C-alpha cells in the first residue's frame, strides 16, 4: 500500500526545473506517481509503506541544490516582496557588482577585466553549483550548465564584461519567472482568504466565537447580515440572500431558505441565519477548488509533455551544435579561433530552452486559474487542451438543458371558472410529493389561490389521483384515463393533443363526471439554453440532445433550441450515441454528474453541471459550478484562447532564437544580446501567458 506525500520545493529557477527534479525522484526505489507543480512549488508522490521515509526524497532534491520542507496545510504561506527573496537578493548583489565593476573600469581601466571576472564568477557561483549537483545526480544537460559553460568560456576569451552582463540578465529572467508564478498562485489562493477565520458557534447557553478551522460536521453556527459564511452547510433556521459571486462567478445573489446548501466564503446579504456544518475546513468547497486547480496545474497537457520530451534532446543538441560551430571553421577552414568560439558561446546562450519550456505551462496555469475564479473547473492541462478541440457537444436534457423540475405552462378551462378549477386541482395534489403535483400546488400558490381540505385521497396507479373537495369527487387524470371515465369533445381532444404535441404533460381535471379543463406542465428550458446553442453554432460546434424522454417531448424542446435530438435512450443507448458521434470529431458530454456518469466517462471530455456537488467535481473532467448552459461555449472559448496563447508563446520563443541564430552566424550578436534571446523571450512569454488571468468572459 502506497502513502501519498507532499513536500514544498524552494529555489526552482524555471519550469524546466520540474522535469529535472521529477526525473531524480522517480529513480528512488519505492517512489512512484511523482508530480511537481512549478506554480505551487509542491512535490507530490506516493511511497511504499516498506520504504515510508521521505528523507530519501528530501535528500535527493536537496542534492540538486534546492531547499525542501514539509507542507503545513494550516499555516498559510507568507508571500515575500521580490527583493526579500533569495533570487531577488542575488539579482541585487549581481547588479551591485556589475555597477561597481563598470565604475572601476573607468577609474582603473588596467584592472577592469579582473573586476568584471570577479563580478561574473561571484554571480555565477549559485548557478554553477546547481549545474554541478544536477550533473552529479545524472541530469547534466540543464539550463545552468549552458549558462555556466558560456560565462566561463567568455572569460577565457577575454570577454569578462560581457560574461558579467550575461549572468545578470539571466538572473533577472529567473526573477521575473518567479514573480509571474507567484502572481498566478495568488490569483487562485485569494479564494482561501474569502473564508473567515472565526465563526459564531451556537451552544445551549448562546453563541461563542471559535476558530473556523475547529468547526466539525454537525455543529450549529450563526451567520449575521453582511458576514461571510465560515463553512459549507445547510440552513437550519432563517432565510436570506446569499452572494456567491466570489466562488461561482454568479453575479446575482441567490435566495436561500431552510434546507438549502451554502458554501464557505459566500456572503450573507440579509437576515440572521443558522446553519448546520456539513464539512470541515479541509474539505469545504473552496478547499476542494484550490486542490482541484493545484492538481490540474500539475497535470501536463499533451503539448507540454511533447515540449518536455523534446527539451531532453534539444539541450544536449544545442551543446553539440555550439561546439561544432566553435571548432569546425577554425579547424578545417583556418578561421580565427577567438571569433568562432565567441559565436559558439553565443549559440549556447541563444539555445537556452527556458522560454520554450515555460511557454505551455505558464499559459495552462493562467487559463485554469482564470476559469476557476469564474466557476469553471478543469482537471488538468490535458482537459483544457481537449475542450478546445470539441466538434460535438452532447447534452443531457433533464436538469442540464432544462431546469430539472416541471412547471405549469398552460391552463385550459373547458367548463366553469379557471380559479375554481385551480383550487380543486391544487387541493387534491396538496398532499402529494410527485413532481407534477408539486408544480400544480406551486402554481396555485403563485396565483394567490387558497386551497381547501381534501379527504378520501386515492392514487390511481399511474392514471392519476382523486379526492373529495367541497363535496365533489375531483379527479386529476391522464388524458387516456379521462376519456375512459368521461366524454371529451373533439375540440377538447384537439386542444389536449396540441399541448402534447409541444412536448407537454397534460393533466385533465374532472369534478364528478364534468371535465373542468386541462393543466399542461413541462420541464422548461433553462433561461440561457437558447443563447448557449447560438454561441456554440458561432464556434462551429454542433449540439445534440440525448434524452430518455419520449420522442415528442425531446423533439419539441430541440426545435426551440435548433439542435438535433436522440430520444427514448436508455443509459446503454447514450453510450452508443457517444461512440457514433465520435465519427464527427472530439465529443464532449454535458450532464448532471450522477445518472449521466457512464456517458460522461465515455466522452472525450465529460462536463458536469452539478453546482459543485461531490459527484460533479469527482466524476467529470470539468465542472460548471453555477449551472449555466452558456458556460459550455464559454469553456470552449477559454480553451481556444489558451491554446492560441500557447502557440503565440512557442512562436515567440522559437522566433527570437531563429533571428538571433542568424545574426550570430553573421557576427552581429554579442553575448549579452544572445542571453536576451532567452531572457527576453522568457519575459515576453510570461507576460503573454499572464494575459489569460484577465481573460474576458463576457465576449
General description of the model:
- This protein is of the alpha+beta class and 699 residues long.
- Among the domains are: 2-82, Alpha-Beta Plaits (2-Layer Sandwich); 196-283, Calcium-transporting ATPase, cytoplasmic transduction domain A (Distorted Sandwich); 376-402 and 526-625, 3-Layer(aba) Sandwich (Rossmann fold), CATH 3.40.50.1000; 407-522, Calcium-transporting ATPase, cytoplasmic domain N (3-Layer(aba) Sandwich), CATH 3.40.1110.
- It is built from 24 helices and 26 strands.
- The strands form five sheets. Strands 14-26-25-24-15-22-23 form a seven-stranded mixed beta sheet, with helices on both faces. Strands 6-5-7-13-8-11 form a six-stranded antiparallel beta sheet, with no helix packed on it. It has a six-stranded antiparallel beta sheet with strand order 16-21-20-19-18-17.
- Helix 3 (86-107) runs antiparallel to helix 6 (160-189).
- The chain is elongated, with a radius of gyration of 33 Å.
- It starts with a strand and ends in a 9-residue tail after the last helix.
Amino acid at each position: 500500500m502506497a502513502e501519498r506525500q507532499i513536500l514544498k520545493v524552494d529555489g526552482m529557477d524555471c519550469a524546466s526545473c520540474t522535469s529535472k527534479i521529477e526525473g531524480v525522484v522517480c529513480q528512488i526505489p519505492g517512489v512512484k506517481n511523482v508530480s511537481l507543480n512549478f506554480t505551487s512549488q509542491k512535490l507530490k508522490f506516493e511511497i511504499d509503506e516498506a520504504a515510508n521515509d521521505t528523507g530519501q526524497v528530501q535528500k535527493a532534491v536537496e542534492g540538486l541544490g534546492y531547499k525542501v520542507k514539509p507542507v503545513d496545510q494550516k499555516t498559510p504561506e507568507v508571500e515575500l516582496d521580490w527583493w526579500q527573496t533569495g533570487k531577488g537578493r542575488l539579482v541585487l548583489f549581481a547588479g551591485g557588482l556589475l555597477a561597481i565593476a563598470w565604475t572601476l573600469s573607468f577609474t582603473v581601466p588596467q584592472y577592469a577585466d579582473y573586476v568584471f571576472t570577479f563580478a561574473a564568477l561571484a554571480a555565477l557561483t549559485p548557478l554553477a553549483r546547481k549545474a554541478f549537483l544536477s550533473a552529479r545526480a545524472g541530469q547534466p544537460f540543464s539550463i545552468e550548465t549552458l549558462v555556466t559553460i558560456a560565462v566561463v568560456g567568455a572569460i577565457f576569451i577575454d570577454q569578462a564584461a560581457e560574461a558579467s552582463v550575461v549572468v545578470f540578465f539571466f538572473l533577472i529572467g529567473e526573477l521575473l519567472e518567479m514573480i509571474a508564478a507567484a502572481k498566478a498562485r495568488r490569483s487562485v489562493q485569494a479564494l482561501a482568504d474569502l473564508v473567515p477565520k472565526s465563526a459564531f458557534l451556537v451552544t445551549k447557553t448562546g453563541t461563542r466565537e471559535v476558530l473556523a478551522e475547529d468547526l466539525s460536521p454537525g455543529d450549529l453556527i450563526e451567520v449575521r447580515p453582511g458576514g461571510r459564511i465560515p463553512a459549507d452547510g445547510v440552513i437550519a433556521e432563517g432565510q436570506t440572500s446569499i452572494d456567491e459571486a466570489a466562488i461561482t462567478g454568479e453575479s446575482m445573489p441567490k435566495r436561500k431558505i431552510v434546507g438549502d446548501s451554502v458554501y464557505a466564503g459566500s456572503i450573507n446579504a440579509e437576515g440572521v441565519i443558522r446553519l448546520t456544518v456539513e464539512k470541515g475546513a479541509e474539505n469545504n468547497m473552496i478547499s476542494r477548488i484550490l486542490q482541484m486547480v493545484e492538481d490540474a496545474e500539475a497535470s501536463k497537457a499533451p503539448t507540454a509533455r511533447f515540449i518536455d520530451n523534446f527539451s531532453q534532446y534539444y539541450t544536449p543538441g544545442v551543446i553539440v551544435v555550439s561546439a561544432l560551430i566553435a571548432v569546425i571553421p577554425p579547424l578545417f577552414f583556418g578561421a580565427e579561433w577567438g571569433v568562432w568560439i565567441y559565436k559558439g558561446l553565443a549559440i549556447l546562450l541563444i539555445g537556452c530552452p527556458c522560454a520554450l519550456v515555460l511557454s505551455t505551462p505558464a499559459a495552462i496555469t493562467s487559463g485554469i486559474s482564470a476559469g476557476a475564479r469564474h466557476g469553471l473547473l478543469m482537471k488538468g492541462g490535458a482537459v483544457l487542451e481537449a475542450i478546445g478541440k470539441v466538434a460535438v457537444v452532447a447534452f443531457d436534457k433533464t436538469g442540464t438543458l432544462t431546469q430539472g423540475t416541471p412547471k405549469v405552462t398552460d391552463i385550459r378551462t373547458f367548463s366553469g371558472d379557471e380559479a375554481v378549477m385551480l383550487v380543486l386541482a391544487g387541493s387534491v395534489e396538496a398532499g402529494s410529493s410527485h413532481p407534477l403535483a408539486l408544480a400544480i400546488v406551486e402554481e396555485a400558490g403563485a396565483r394567490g389561490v387558497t386551497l381547501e381540505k381534501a379527504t378520501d385521497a386515492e392514487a390511481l396507479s399511474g392514471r392519476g389521483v382523486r379526492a373529495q373537495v367541497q363535496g365533489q369527487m375531483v379527479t386529476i387524470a391522464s388524458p387516456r384515463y379521462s376519456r375512459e371515465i368521461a366524454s371529451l369533445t373533439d375540440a377538447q381532444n384537439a386542444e389536449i393533443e396540441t399541448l402534447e404535441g409541444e412536448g407537454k404533460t397534460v393533466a385533465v381535471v374532472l369534478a364528478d363526471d364534468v371535465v373542468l379543463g386541462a393543466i399542461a406542465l413541462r420541464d422548461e428550458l433553462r433561461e440561457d439554453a437558447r443563447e448557449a446553442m447560438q454561441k456554440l453554432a458561432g464556434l462551429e460546434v454542433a449540439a445534440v440532445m440525448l434524452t430518455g424522454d419520449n420522442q415528442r417531448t425531446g423533439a419539441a424542446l430541440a426545435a426551440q433550441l435548433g439542435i438535433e435530438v436522440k430520444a427514448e435512450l436508455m443509459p446503454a443507448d447514450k453510450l452508443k450515441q457517444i461512440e457514433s458521434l465520435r465519427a464527427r470529431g472530439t465529443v464532449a458530454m454535458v450532464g448532471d454528474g450522477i445518472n449521466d456518469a457512464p456517458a460522461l466517462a465515455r466522452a472525450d471530455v465529460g462536463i458536469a453541471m452539478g453546482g459543485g456537488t461531490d459527484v460533479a467535481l469527482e466524476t467529470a473532467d470539468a465542472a460548471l459550478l453555477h449551472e449555466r448552459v452558456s458556460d459550455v461555449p464559454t469553456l470552449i472559448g477559454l480553451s481556444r484562447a489558451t491554446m492560441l496563447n500557447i502557440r503565440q508563446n512557442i512562436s515567440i520563443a522559437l522566433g527570437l532564437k531563429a533571428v538571433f541564430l542568424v545574426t550570430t552566424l553573421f557576427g552581429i550578436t554579442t553575448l549579452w544580446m544572445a542571453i536576451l534571446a532567452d531572457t527576453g523571450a522568457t519575459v515576453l512569454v510570461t507576460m503573454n501567458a499572464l494575459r489569460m488571468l484577465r481573460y474576458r468572459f463576457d465576449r
